[in-house]
TrEMBL record:
Keywords: Metal-binding, Molybdenum, Oxidoreductase. It comes from Centaurea solstitialis (yellow star-thistle). Residues 334-462 form the Moybdenum cofactor oxidoreductase dimerisation domain. Its EC number is 1.8.3.1. This is Sulfite oxidase. The lineage of its organism: Eukaryota, Viridiplantae, Streptophyta, Embryophyta, Tracheophyta. Its cofactor is Mo-molybdopterin. The keyword Iron-sulfur does not apply. It is an enzyme of class 1 (oxidoreductase). One of its GO terms (biological process) is sulfur compound metabolic process. Pathway: Sulfur metabolism; Energy metabolism; sulfur metabolism. PANTHER family: SULFITE OXIDASE, MITOCHONDRIAL, SULFITE REDUCTASE. Signal peptide: none annotated. GO terms for cellular component: mitochondrion. CDD domains: eukary_SO_Moco.
Length: 467
């Protein structure tokens, strides 16, 4: 029995240039066992007729090899390179923390130069070579799993949905890891304070996308038992043993329009670039960046959260007592919302020769859509405090939780201090739920060095003239 006519994949002898049952001629690809796999039209890039081929009495590993080659030819317009020879160009001022895969952050002063982080200064977090789009017309995302209407969506399908712009800060869970490693050694990319950025993301709401496959808004469980939405990338990484990067969020969050989860195709008003997920990525506001999967390949509706490496054996918060000898990953849930955070960007860790009035500028942000209620500044190591001014959009007063404020985005803060002797300048933020940054990094140390939200301290060393 032949496969469906629209598939038009057949096995034929070498040298034959016809297809049984069709008048049109077809090219036949020969194989070593005198059989070839004939390639015709596919209804979509993910179609598979391997079960039909393998049932042939003449099917061999040689046939499978040819099938694999054809599968590679019909990949959905995007591919994951096996090496780093096709990497995009990056801004020369980025601080490179790892070259392959490429992980870099901007100078801290660049973060407070504007409310919206320029794309070239947005931190780059990668786990493998950057995928390459060969044919955007063939690119599609499969939506499948515990649903009644699995579907494959091309970019046209996504673009036909209502477009939303969401201003949201993405932050790597390892932001400020370098400072934590000074307490005790941790594992991971050595980030300073700039592994985050604030962008305007444009795209379709995931809640609208899931309606296309029969999942209504505000659904927590599908009739078939789906409770989680897993995002699978084209990206390949060593942690997954060469498999794809993946992560998940609860279905209740994915189907809630107020959660603003996007399938984004724009960043700061322009088409996504390759580093940031072109042609399509997930943006999960208020959650650590590891859940905002780039280079989206498929969406799976499952009964359990993603079982991938970065959900089950990474990005979990352990107490200081846990080390690599006694760790039990199953005792902690995957980290989702990021805690309240702030950092001073106008000053380096150590500043020599400064004296008089000093501008203190930085960012503050909290996860889960919580606004920033207050940013406190101290110039004596935390003995006394003053409140910094906060703002988002220039000329518009920032009031946390007001509709005109961007609930998923950071606030920038400013203060001025008169410094005439050596000083330790400190910043700490308080969010609208009264969560406050912990004073000491030792209290939140963890073996993976994530979520360092301790008070941020910089040192000013004043030089007095000898004259």
């Amino acid at each position: 029995m032949l496969p469906p006519p629209t598939v038009a994949l057949f096995i034929c002898g070498v040298g034959e240039h016809y297809v049984a049952g069709e008048s049109r001629r077809r090219r036949c690809l020969p194989s070593k066992n005198l059989f070839g796999i004939l390639w015709g039209f596919l209804p979509h890039p993910h179609s598979s007729v391997l079960p039909f081929i393998s049932s042939s009495p003449s099917f061999t590993s040689s046939s499978l090899s040819i099938h694999s080659q054809l599968q590679a030819q019909k990949m959905p317009g995007i591919r994951a390179p096996s090496n780093y020879s096709e990497e995009p160009s990056r801004h020369p001022s980025l601080k490179i923390n790892a070259k392959e895969p490429f992980n870099a952050e901007p100078p801290r002063q660049a973060l407070v130069s504007s409310y919206v982080t320029p794309t070239e200064f947005f931190y780059k977090r990668n786990h493998g070579p950057i995928p390459v789009v060969d044919d955007i017309e063939r690119y599609c995302v499969s939506v499948k799993g515990l649903i009644e209407k699995p579907k494959e969506l091309f970019m046209k399908d996504i673009l036909d949905l209502p477009k939303y712009n969401v201003t949201a800060t993405l932050q790597c869970a390892g932001n400020r890891r370098t400072a934590m490693s000074k307490t005790r050694t941790v594992r991971g990319v050595g980030w300073d304070i700039s592994a985050l950025g604030n962008a305007i993301w444009g795209g379709a709401k995931l809640a609208d996308v899931l309606e296309l496959v029969g999942i209504p808004k505000l659904t927590s469980t599908t009739p078939a038992g789906g409770k989680h939405v897993e995002f699978v990338s084209i990206d390949r990484c060593k942690e997954e043993k060469g498999g794809p990067y993946k992560a998940s969020i609860p279905l209740s969050q994915a189907t809630n329009p107020e959660a603003d989860v996007l399938l984004a195709y724009e960043m700061n008003g322009e088409t996504l670039n390759r580093d940031h997920g072109y042609p399509l990525r997930v943006v999960v506001p208020g959650v650590i960046g590891a859940r905002s999967v780039k280079w989206l390949d498929s969406i799976n509706i499952d009964s359990q959260e993603c079982q991938g490496f970065f959900m089950q054996k990474d990005y979990k918060m352990f107490p200081p007592s846990v080390n690599w000898d006694n760790i039990n990953w199953s005792t902690r849930r995957p980290q989702m919302d990021f805690p309240v955070q702030s950092a001073i960007c106008s000053l380096e860790d150590v500043n020599i020769g400064m004296k008089g009035k000093i501008a203190i500028k930085g960012y503050a942000v909290s996860g889960g859509g919580r606004g920033i209620e207050r940013v406190d500044i101290s110039v004596d190591g935390g003995k006394t405090w003053m409140e910094a001014s906060r703002y988002q959009k220039p000329g518009i007063e920032y009031i946390a939780d007001e509709e005109r404020s961007d609930k998923w985005a950071w606030v920038l803060f400013e203060a001025e201090a008169d410094v005439h002797s050596n000083a330790v300048i400190v910043a700490k933020a308080v969010d609208t739920a009264a969560n406050v940054q912990p004073e000491n990094v030792e209290d939140i140390w963890n073996l993976r060095g994530i979520l360092n939200t301790s008070w941020h301290r910089v040192h000013v060393q004043v030089r007095h003239s000898s004259l």
